[in-house]
Design goal:
- The structure is a single chain.
- By secondary structure, the chain is of the alpha+beta class.
- It is 24% helix and 25% strand.
- It has six helices and eleven strands.
- The protein has helices at 2-14, 50-59, 78-87, 125-135, 149-154, 219-224, and strands spanning 20-26, 29-35, 61-68, 91-94, 101-104, 167-169, 181-184, 193-199, 202-205, 213-216, 225-231.
- The protein starts with a helix and ends with a strand.
Length: 233
């Protein structure tokens, strides 16, 4: 495939950053459309430029998403597989050094709640909360993310969204119950993190740069909590 040659050239040029692009059908031909990686840590993951995606849509029909794994084999990571499901498109992955390829397609994959790698907009604290509630039969709306996590840290919007998502705030007299949602301020003046209370003083959450986990709800997590919420369902 000629587009693979172009994608590999792009991956080599971007190394050690992750390259990203699209396969676009234009006048009956598959073409590689290079895109900018706007991730704050482009050597660890990619965030495809929305402007580049829109330009590709104007050019033709988007058939697939392509990105590189500069430091690891091209096998799809759990985050890749989860994002592939969200995109509804095939994903192709290449290692620029070994020139090996791999791929994944939407197949109904669901990432485990524990041990996820953090990826903005795919596997982050709100994604984890939504997936936990989904397992309880409660579908929460997904809030559109801003361009990158740095923008969110500068102006977090959790406190503007919880009412329209079906939550109410607990009174000081009400005790936490399993399934309550906690909004926290982590190294920020605003509420920029969420966790699900599991009961028995344990929470489920996903901090940037760490794997999703269960953790004892006390100490610094308790001190960082700004709102305690309960869903109306």
């Amino acid at each position: 495939m000629i587009w693979r040659d172009k994608a590999l050239e792009h991956a080599k040029a971007e190394d050690p950053r992750e390259a990203c692009g699209l396969v676009v059908l234009h006048k009956g031909r598959e073409r590689y459309w290079p895109c900018r990686n706007e991730a704050s840590t482009p050597d660890q993951f990619f965030l495809l430029s929305p402007d580049d995606y829109a330009a590709a849509e104007d050019y033709g029909d988007i058939l697939a998403i392509v990105h590189s794994h500069p430091a690891t084999p091209p096998a799809p990571s759990p985050a890749d597989r989860a994002a592939c499901e969200v995109s509804g498109l095939p994903w192709y992955i290449v290692n620029p050094k070994t020139e090996q390829w791999d791929a994944c397609r939407p197949s109904g994959y669901k990432a485990p709640l524990i041990g996820r790698q953090w990826v903005w907009g795919v596997h982050d604290c709100w994604s984890l909360a939504r997936d936990w509630y989904a397992e309880q039969g409660i579908k929460l709306r997904d809030w559109k993310r801003c361009g990158n996590p740095d923008d969110f840290q500068a102006k977090p919007y959790f406190d503007d969204r919880w009412k329209e998502t079906g939550f109410r705030e607990l009174s000081p007299e009400e005790e936490l119950q399993p399934g309550d949602l906690l909004f926290m301020s982590i190294a920020s003046p605003g509420l920029n993190h969420c966790a699900v209370y599991l009961g028995e003083q344990m929470v489920l959450h996903h901090l940037q740069g760490r794997l999703s986990c269960r953790e004892l709800y006390g100490g610094w997590l308790l001190q960082c909590t700004g709102r305690r919420l309960r869903h109306a369902a």
